[in-house]
Task: structure prediction
Amino acid sequence: MSVLDELAGGLVVSCQPLPDDPDDPMRDPYVQARVAAAVVRGGAVAVRVNGPDDVRAVRAAVDVPVIGLYKHGTQGVFITPTAGHALEAARAGSHVVAVDATDRPRPDGRAFADTVRAVHEQSDALVLADVATVAEGVAAVEAGADAVATTLSGYTPAGPPIDGPDLGLVARLAALLPVPVIAEGRYRTTEQISRAFEAGAHAVVTGNAVTSPLWITRRLVPATPRAASAPEKREHR
Result:
């Protein structure tokens, strides 16, 4: 059974602090490893983890596949933006490396295919292409990606921001691509997860709705009478 086979029909949980909040108290490898162990105990078939230190800590704490990535910055292509970042994530112990595969310029000026080639030639990891459109998903497979995720739908200039998951993109990619399609991006309810599988998803990723107390609290606080006097908070994936 391959690593991707282990994900089939299951829930993957993203265990990460908020990417653009440096003061998130969850920003600690030990904490993220404990979070990962908890979600695996709850039934997660894999976890998605950011940064080599967190990947190493989580690998030591769980016995399910680790989808690793390496966020660098907060704008443009920042999810594993270069082959060097991808290799660091792979060498830290990622079974699968998630990489931004959108058609936006990459900071090193190289193509997504170069990152795929580096990971395949210099590690045992697979490559998960994070995309925002059908065309990007097709191009990612042509470049050698082992799987495609809808992670970036609604987060690039290719489409407007949306509040819920992009089930239509899941369905279109699943119908077109010969590789597993993973539904990711704003999956927060059991109904949304069920609909993603109905649309053809190989697996579904949920994140902050499970693993970020900061994000969850920010979603709930606006319902309180005191919220009117509190500073406005940005919402994150």
